[in-house]
Design goal:
The strands form 4 sheets. Strands 2, 4, 5, 6, 7, 8, 9, 10, 12, 15, 17, 19 and 21 form a 13-stranded mixed β-sheet that branches. A 5-stranded parallel β-sheet has the order 3-20-18-16-13, with no helix packed on it. The protein has a 3-stranded antiparallel β-sheet with strand order 1-22-23. With about 300 residues, it is α/β, with parallel strands linked by helices. The protein has helices at about 10-15, 30, 90-105, 290-300; strands at about 25, 35-40, 40-45, 50, 55, 70-75, 80, 85, 110, 125-130, 140-150, 150-155, 160, 170-175, 180-185, 190, 195-200, 205-210, 215-220, 225-230, 230-235, 250-255, 260-265. It is built from 4 helices and 23 strands. A hairpin with a 6-residue loop joins β22 and β23 (about 260-265). The longest helix has 18 residues, at about 90-105. The protein is globular and about 45 Å long.
Length: about 300
């Protein structure tokens, strides 16, 4: 299987795009502050543990959290952030979510994978399309950064994102600039006791079933709700490569809203041992696809 077929718009952006000093993260600053964002409702069965902001951008319903309509409120389940009920920050984050979904989509369909990623084997950095399936993850999948600290994976989910119980996403051989993005056309369901990794940007709603975790990622719903049930999520990953900025780094855009061009971080080798510890303990997530493609061509020659 050709796991490194890259979207042409991305290659053009890499070849001719402006310097990274002018680029803006794919997740705007307000959006990046949210680990959980729903358009109308965030429902929580306590106790969940969230690192980063939790909020709704249009409605005022956050059952299971302490909240006050129109304000940002503290809650013991939320650290490193507050609970936002239709605040200006949540509204700005919602607009940035719409833009992020559009810009991820501009990377193109990429390589077509099987609907169940468990059947694919190790997945190299790249842009991929995943068709509808009764499950998109029936067991474990490994995302292999191939030694690039800026590796990134963009999964264009044509319909929904569905995992089976006890599924696992592993990320290896990458570093602090790495990024994982799940661009979901409709709804996402992360099943019971699943260990997930990455930013979920859903056009509809997101359900985190009992004890499912995403300790290096976010649950961001564009038009629907987010449902939590004794979950743990963190939008800022810390550990051996702390201080990288977590999942919002790496895959960037430049220009004005509506006219953005997606750019990517250059290749950077992994330092300090060459592999990433468990995803829950590491700053993962960004992009070095062009350099990885160059490395692949060298191996072929």
């Amino acid at each position: 299987m050709n796991t490194m077929k890259l979207a042409i718009p991305l290659l053009v952006a890499l070849a001719y795009g402006p310097s990274q000093a002018l680029a803006t993260p794919i997740l705007g600053s307000d959006l990046a502050s949210f680990t959980v964002l729903g358009a109308s409702t965030v429902t929580n069965v306590p106790t969940s543990n969230i690192v980063g902001n939790v909020g709704v951008s249009a409605g005022t319903a956050l059952p299971g959290f302490s909240y006050t309509s129109g304000l940002a409120t503290s809650d013991p389940q939320v650290t490193g952030g507050l609970v936002h009920s239709n605040t200006a920050v949540a509204q700005a984050a919602q607009l940035q979510l719409d833009s992020a979904i559009t810009n991820l989509g501009s990377l193109g369909p990429g390589t077509l994978l099987a609907s169940d990623l468990t059947l694919v084997g190790p997945i190299a950095p790249g842009v991929y399309t995943v068709p509808y399936g009764t499950t998109n993850l029936s067991g474990s999948v490994t995302l292999d950064g191939q030694g690039n600290a800026n590796a990134a994976w963009v999964f264009q989910m044509e319909s929904s994102l569905i995992t089976s119980d006890n599924s696992v996403v592993n990320v290896i051989n990458t570093g602090s600039g790495a990024g994982v993005y799940w661009n979901v056309a409709s709804d996402a369901t992360i099943a019971f006791n699943t260990t997930f990794v990455g930013n979920i940007l859903a056009g509809g709603s997101i359900s985190m079933v009992n004890t499912a975790t995403d300790l290096c990622g976010r649950a961001l719903a564009a038009t629907g709700q987010v449902v939590l049930d004794h979950n743990s999520l963190s939008g800022v990953c810390t550990g051996a490569l702390a201080g990288s900025g977590g999942l919002s780094g790496g895959l960037d855009v430049t220009g004005t809203p509506g006219e953005w061009t997606v750019v990517a971080l250059p290749y950077a080798p992994v330092t300090g041992g060459g592999t990433v510890p468990e995803p829950a303990t590491l700053a993962l997530l960004g992009l070095g696809l062009a350099a990885l493609g160059a490395n692949r061509r060298k191996r072929v020659n």
